[in-house]
Amino acid sequence: MMFACLVSATISVKAVAEQNVTPISDIQRGSMVVVSGTVERITDEDEFRLADSTGSVRVYVGPNWVPASVGEAVTVSGFVDNGFGFTEIYARTMTREDGTIVTFEHRYD
After folding, report:
1. Cis before residue 63, ω within 30 degrees of 0?
2. 22-31 pLDDT, tens per residue?
3. Which top-level group of life is the source organism from (predicted)?
4. Tell me: the pLDDT tens digits for 6-40?
5. CA-CA distance, 9 to 25, in Å (whole number)?
6. Are 28 and 11 in contact (CB under 8 A)?
7. How many domains does the chain have?
8. CATH code, 38
9. Which residues contact 85 (CB under 8 A, 6 or more apart)?
10. Does the pLDDT value for residue 51 go beyond 90?
11. What's the burial of 86, exposed, middle or buried (CB within 10 Å: 0-12/13-18/19+)?
12. Cα distance between residue 1 and residue 39, in whole Å
């Protein structure tokens, strides 16, 4: 199994705002979601905690390094799962505060 992280061109803040953003408190296991918030803390080199006004959630980007800083506002799209008894989002993309989109590709060889 091989994973890759790609950084693509920037997009406008308006384009991010137009996505259907789900409050963290409303995410449900087994769904694809888009959530926005602030990086609360980096819990491991490939995982961070994202918080909005409704709660917080773990975001897994592995096996890549977390491409954001504590305090940075980001938007994450990904799959919600319950790993080891806690809710976690397996990120597919992350839009950074400056508009840069980071794509987390999962390749299986």
Report:
1. yes
2. 999 999 999 9
3. Bacteria
4. 444 444 444 544 569 999 999 999 999 999 999 99
5. 30
6. no
7. 1
8. 2.40.50.200
9. none
10. yes
11. exposed
12. 28
